Amino acid sequence: MIIMSEKVHSHQHHHHHHTKAVLNRLSRAIGHLESVKRMVEEEKDCSEVLIQLSAVIAALNNTGKVILKDHIEHCIVDAWDHGNEEAMENLHKAIDRFIK
Amino acid sequence: MIIMSEKVHSHQHHHHHHTKAVLNRLSRAIGHLESVKRMVEEEKDCSEVLIQLSAVIAALNNTGKVILKDHIEHCIVDAWDHGNEEAMENLHKAIDRFIK
Amino acid sequence: MIIMSEKVHSHQHHHHHHTKAVLNRLSRAIGHLESVKRMVEEEKDCSEVLIQLSAVIAALNNTGKVILKDHIEHCIVDAWDHGNEEAMENLHKAIDRFIK
Amino acid sequence: MIIMSEKVHSHQHHHHHHTKAVLNRLSRAIGHLESVKRMVEEEKDCSEVLIQLSAVIAALNNTGKVILKDHIEHCIVDAWDHGNEEAMENLHKAIDRFIK
């Protein structure tokens, strides 16, 4: 269930350099996760399922890093210069949730 | 790309207690990841995308723990008692890859 | 503050193969953490402090894996064969806390 | 072994808001790690050692988040406004290493 603030955020005005790359990564991760699901359905060895699941998690972590770096470099600096403190607060929340 | 040994492994003879729960978790994670992808397509705020991506990663981590605990309790102990050292080696490899 | 059950646990009868290696790893991590602390005192660049802190965290994670694998291979299998279900429950708790 | 560039970095001119808090956290983590080491010396139950080690790792992760957020808010924005791209590159390296 996704909770999203509908509030228009100045964020929409920033071009994201890595959107295409992020979308490709997410598509690959979805495909890989579907194949992990098939492994479980076919009762493949648990160690092999865990190794493939770890690969998906690592890929999603790397995708998150691409988003975070892109966001800091393009959205945060720009928002901060326009006095938009909310963008920094939202980034802090995202860092807290993303870094375990 | 999934590399899987076709070798018949005594593993197939162990009933997995949590297969249904694991399959449900993976289906939910796939659905959630598709919605994260839509958020990126719609250029939603990066912080919100990161928060939802973190939720998917956390869910997959928890799924891995269910598999790992089930595997240790049912497969490993049984395999070890039958002198199957390969099962323990595979578990070690899986632990190395799964725990970052 | 460490909360530890004083209950005698059959665990004490299992020889740990990796105790010396684990102790060396922990000593190195303590030394490395002290040097990270000095970096902060000397106001070194935050990125460099973060990189060194990540190295300590990675080293401690690897130490945890050594303990976990040693524990599964020597304590858990033995405890399970002696009908000691508590050892498995404690392992599950440790896996839940250790894998984020 | 700590590799640190001796290059004077504009970073020294930024006051860190959380230095005292970071130093306290690191001191506590060092103390906690020393007590984990004593647990291993006293052959305490591996599951309990793992739970305490996880607590140290979690504390260090949280310390890293405090440093990262402080760095983004005070050093990066300021460095970027002064055309110091190196600070952003160093932050990217730190994010890559810190987020596993």
Automatic annotation (TrEMBL), chains A, B, C, D:
Secretion signal span: none
Top-level taxon of the source organism: Bacteria
Protein name: DNA-binding transcriptional regulator, FrmR family
Record-linked InterPro entries: Metal_Tscrpt_repr, Metal_Tscrpt_repr_sf
Keyword DNA-binding in record: yes
Organism annotation: Desulfitobacterium chlororespirans DSM 11544
UniProt keyword terms in alphabetical order: DNA-binding
A GO MF label: DNA binding
Single GO biological process annotation from the record: negative regulation of DNA-templated transcription
